[in-house]
Each structure stands twice: as structure tokens, then as C-alpha cells.
Design brief:
This protein has 350 residues and is α/β, with parallel strands linked by helices. The chain folds into two domains: 31-174, Up-down Bundle (Four Helix Bundle (Hemerythrin (Met), subunit A)); 182-341, Rossmann fold (3-Layer(aba) Sandwich). 46% of the residues lie in helices and 9% in strands. The chain is built from ten helices and six strands; from the N terminus they run H-H-H-H-H-H-E-H-E-E-H-E-H-E-E-H. Helix 1 packs antiparallel against helix 5 (138-158), helix 2 (54-81) runs antiparallel to helix 4 (106-131) and helix 4 (106-131) crosses helix 6. The longest helix is centred in the first third of the chain and has 28 residues, at 54-81.
Length: 350
């Protein structure tokens, strides 16, 4: 007589309750957290227990899995928390850039929430470690590990948006220059395609992208102009401005205004008298007038580019970034205007 083994008695699983953490490897709509959890759970799966009996080995393994996975998660959270320097010495331009991109104080609040998530995760690990000695069988040990995995996943899911924000903020700052010498910074501003990047390349060793169409520059970059031996002034290449309004729609224009506001007391306003940039001199002069009205504390050094093509009868400095004409006069004017912002010369030794 043939005997057929009965199928194992398996409890029917109901639908997963809303908000419950998924099993490792199952997508949840939290891609960044899922990636971190996958790393943590994969590494913890390699933990091997030690002990004389099977129960001791399983208890050691359960404790190792919890400690290993928690350690991986804590390291990732600590790294994300520190992606952006929020100390009081952070550059005011970069702080303003973060607030414009993400909202006032939001990056700092994200860092704080990630720190609190680390503290909660550490508490969960300690809580589960305390339950392990009380487990009487392997089922209780496995349940403790699963419980920790689920609660840890919930902690990460709650700060998913904060992790993403810190990652984006870090990428934003990584593409911006680290600047020093706030008082002696010089922002080069003006309409698109007037030659700002070409001027910065002429005055400094920077090599910004230069092209003959508007909005080639979409983010602030910088070079350094030597004012005297050992003393340099950052020269900021800014995106083109078309309006000095408080909240222009184009993010590159907002960044240019922030760079201008948080630069030093001197700025270069670059004109294109030929009109090849696409704007008339009347429009360019109107933009400068509105900038002066908004920022009366700034000294705008008015410079006309493309003197090799056209020299207007105005009293402004005339330069040609293509041929290098007038650049010595421009550097001399900058040194004169920046003199009060420079550190004093060291005393002479007799």
C-alpha cells in the first residue's frame, strides 16, 4: 500500500498590514533606505554563532546578527548626518544656497532627525540584546532577530526623505567652490553671454566653460586673483542675470543674486556695448540701476567688454577678454578698491 505524506500544516498568511515593514529585498517605495537595509541584512546573514549546544550557537548567532546589522545601519546614518557641514563657520553664501534650494532650516532639521534615528536604533539594539538571554528556544531567538529587522526598517523609512535631502544638499555643495576671504570676494555679474566666464579665466587660473550662447554658466564657480604676494581674492563667475527681482524663476539667476549679496563690497558689472549678447545697453544699464538700488552697500566697478569690436564714448573701463586689452587697468582698479579689505602688511624687519 502506498502512503502519501500529508502536506505540512501552514498557517494562511493574511494581507500585510498597512505600514508594516517589508521583508528584506522587497521594494517598499523607500529606495535609499532599502539599499542601506539590504547591505545591513546581507552582512548580518554571514554571522556564525559559537557555543557548545545548538541553542547556544543560535543565541550567539542571533546576537551577532542584531549587532552586525545595527552597526551597518548606524554607520550609514552617521555618514548621512555629516554630509553637510552645518557648523557656525560655514560659508554664508553656501548656507543661503541651501536655504534657497531646500527651505530655511530644513537641512539642519533633517540632520537632527537622522541623529535621533541613530539614537532610536541604538536603543532598539540594546532592547533586543536584553531579550536574548531569556529566549528558551530557537523560535524565540529567530523572532527577536525578525523583530529587530522590522523595527530598524521602520526607523529608516521614517527618515527616508531626510536621507534624500542630505544627499542632494551634499551634491549641491560639492559642485560649488569652497571660498575664503569674504570681504575681498569679487562677483562678476551681468546679463548672459556678456563674457563673464571669459573675464574670470583671464583674471585667474580658473577654466570655466565658455560658449557663445546664453546660460552656459548655471552655477557659481571661482578663481583666485593675486592682489599681492601671499594674498588672493576669490573672483566669482556667476550665472547670467536678467532681472534683480527677489525671487527670479530661474534657479541659476537666484544663485547669481545670492553670490552677489554674500560676496564682498566690490563687484564687477560687465557690459556688452555691441549688443551681441541679446540685450541693449539701455537694458543692461537698467539692470545695474536696480541692483544698486537693492544693494546700496556694494561698489559696482562698471566694465565694458569687447572693446576690440566697439569702444563706446562712456568713461567706463574698456577691456577685451579676447585680446587681453585693458586687463591691467582693471586689476589695478580692483586692487585700489579692495585695499581696505586686505589684511595689513607684516612689519618690515631691519
Amino acid at each position: 500500500m502506498t502512503v502519501t505524506a500529508a502536506p505540512p500544516n501552514r498557517r494562511r498568511q493574511g494581507p500585510r498590514r498597512k505600514g508594516a515593514p517589508s521583508a528584506p529585498g522587497r521594494p517598499t517605495g523607500h529606495p535609499l533606505s532599502d539599499a542601506i537595509l539590504e547591505i545591513a541584512f546581507h552582512r548580518s546573514s554571514k554571522v556564525v554563532g559559537k557555543g557548545q549546544s545548538s541553542l547556544e550557537r543560535r543565541r550567539s548567532q542571533a546576537r551577532g546578527k542584531i549587532i552586525k546589522s545595527a552597526g551597518v545601519l548606524l554607520r550609514h546614518l552617521r555618514r548621512y548626518e555629516g554630509l553637510v557641514d552645518l557648523s557656525s563657520t560655514a560659508d554664508p553664501f553656501l548656507r543661503a544656497l541651501l536655504e534657497d534650494a531646500f527651505g530655511e532650516g530644513r537641512v539642519a532639521r533633517s540632520a537632527l532627525r537622522i541623529r535621533r534615528a541613530r539614537e532610536r536604533l541604538l536603543g532598539l539594539r540594546q532592547e533586543e540584546e536584553r531579550t536574548l538571554p531569556k529566549a528558551e528556544d530557537t523560535y524565540a531567538l529567530s523572532n527577536s532577530v525578525r523583530r529587530f529587522y522590522g523595527r530598524a526598517a521602520s526607523v529608516l523609512f521614517e527618515v527616508e526623505a531626510d536621507l534624500v535631502r542630505m544627499e542632494k544638499a551634499s551634491a549641491l555643495l560639492r559642485d560649488r567652490p569652497a571660498l575664503e576671504g569674504g570681504l575681498s570676494r569679487v562677483a562678476v555679474v551681468g546679463f548672459p553671454n556678456v563674457g563673464k566666464s571669459s573675464l574670470v579665466a583671464r583674471l585667474t587660473r580658473a577654466r570655466p566653460r565658455v560658449a557663445s550662447y546664453p546660460f552656459t554658466t548655471l552655477a557659481v564657480s571661482a578663481g583666485h586673483l593675486e592682489l599681492r604676494p601671499g594674498v588672493q581674492a576669490p573672483v566669482l563667475d556667476t550665472p547670467g542675470l536678467r532681472t534683480p527681482e527677489r525671487d527670479p524663476k530661474h534657479p541659476a539667476e537666484r544663485e547669481a543674486l545670492l553670490a552677489l549679496r554674500h560676496s564682498g563690497t566690490v563687484a564687477i558689472f560687465l557690459f556688452d556695448p555691441t549688443g551681441s549678447c541679446g540685450w541693449t545697453m539701455e537694458q543692461q544699464e537698467g539692470l545695474l540701476a536696480r541692483l544698486k538700488e537693492r544693494m546700496p552697500e556694494k561698489t559696482f566697478l562698471e566694465v565694458e567688454n569687447k572693446s576690440d569690436l566697439l569702444r563706446s564714448p562712456s568713461a567706463r573701463l574698456k577691456i577685451s577678454c579676447v585680446k587681453g586689452e585693458g586687463l591691467d587697468d582693471l586689476v589695478g582698479a580692483l586692487k585700489g578698491l579692495l585695499g581696505s579689505a586686505l589684511p595689513p602688511l607684516p612689519p618690515l624687519r631691519e
